[in-house]
Write a structure and sequence with these properties.
The chain is α/β, with parallel strands linked by helices and 336 residues long. It has helices at 12-15, 17-24, 39-42, 49-54, 119-133, 146-153, 156-164, 183-186, 202-208, 215-227, 245-259, 277-286, 308-322; strands at 6-9, 32-35, 58-61, 68-70, 86-89, 92-93, 98-99, 113-116, 137-139, 170-175, 193-198, 209-210, 231-239, 265-272, 274-276, 298-300, 303-305, 331-333. The protein has one domain (6-333): pyruvate-formate lyase- activating enzyme (Alpha-Beta Horseshoe), CATH 3.80.30.30.
């Protein structure tokens, strides 16, 4: 079993057929502890995050307001900056992987995962917001990886059903999942759902994306998704400034489009490392030996990132490499 134990807010077993089904099925035999509120476990001080990462607990909880959040400018391009319809939902908090560049490394006091399962209430509130604000896009995996965890939690089905009811809104689900993903063939592809795969050159994956599926496994999943008719985006984000970075990206992008057909790819997003001021400060405390986190970044507003000339060089080179395979119109620079 992936999870070490399960915490459940009181009343959810009786209220939620989904929760009852988990306990009778995939979670049968797992130690269950009832709690009053997820923060009783998740927000405790002085937790051993690295130990928890090895086998985290899963906390099933009720989502309280707010149900939607305005999209961070760190995830937008300059063209998106004027859009008011870019939002994200929070189906789950935390990720089982441990990528060194991720803002989650300095965000939460726990490595346990919180999954919000009061779907009816959440969907009712988000539906009202969609109709009121004419939302064009909602991201669903801003702080988690629903695709990666779907084989364990069956967490995609409720959200895909919800997306099916709102064809006017695009739902983006970012992931690092790899291998055979059963939902791709079990679920009819939706035109308004975009699966966005995060990718890195293999050497950078080995160095910095701890606990994540291999790049080869992700490429297989991308090919399967395309063959099944799903909308696919590729995210080379963040681009990392490391020794021999140019050679790593040149080799990887060349091989990428020999294994993934460029035609069906909806978009390629590129961006350089960036992290909020408070998140990086806390991450540096937790991981004092991480060279990536302790690079002398510059601060722009409340965000740490590479010096301007370094960032421009990274983006220009990677964009040029991509344009050997896809048109410029399908390349989107984010975080600027």
């Amino acid at each position: 079993m992936f999870f070490s134990r399960i915490y459940i807010e009181r009343g959810l077993v009786e209220e939620s057929p989904y929760v009852a089904g988990l306990l009778k099925g995939r979670f049968k035999g797992l130690r269950v502890t009832p709690i009053n509120h997820y923060k009783d476990i998740f927000s405790r001080p002085r937790q051993e995050i690295e130990l928890q990462k090895r086998r985290p607990a899963i906390i099933l909880a009720r989502k309280r307001p707010p149900y939607l959040y305005e999209g961070s400018r760190l995830c937008r391009s300059s063209a998106d900056a004027v859009e008011v319809s870019d939002y994200y939902a929070l189906p789950m908090m935390n990720c089982p992987m441990s990528c060194e560049y991720c803002f989650l490394r300095g965000m939460y006091p726990s490595a346990h995962l919180v999954y919000f399962v009061n779907f009816d209430e959440v969907f009712e509130e988000i539906s009202s917001a969609i109709y009121e604000h004419s939302m064009g896009k909602i991201a669903l995996s801003f702080e988690s990886d629903l695709v990666y965890l779907d084989s364990i939690l069956r967490c995609l089905e409720p959200w895909l059903d919800f997306a099916r009811q709102h064809p006017e809104t695009t739902f983006e689900i970012r992931t690092k999942a790899g291998g055979r993903l059963h939902f791709l063939k079990e679920t009819r592809p939706l035109k308004n759902v975009r699966l966005a795969w995060s990718l890195s050159p293999p050497r950078l994956h080995t160095a910095f994306e701890h606990g994540s599926p291999s790049i080869g496994a992700r490429l297989k999943a991308i090919r399967d998704a395309i063959e099944c008719g799903w909308q696919v985006t590729i995210c080379l984000d963040p681009i990392l400034y490391t020794i021999s970075w140019e050679g790593h990206y040149m080799e990887f992008i060349s091989k990428l489009f020999t294994q993934v057909p460029p035609g069906p790819i909806q978009e390629v997003q590129i961006g350089v490392f960036r992290m909020g001021k408070e998140q990086l400060k806390e991450a540096r405390k937790r991981y004092p030996s991480s060279q990536l986190l302790h690079y002398p970044y510059e601060i722009v507003g409340n965000t740490y990132t590479y010096p301007k000339k370094v960032a421009e060089t990274l983006l220009s080179k990677v964009k040029g490499l991509l344009m050997e395979h896809i048109t410029e119109e399908r390349i989107r620079i984010v975080g600027v």
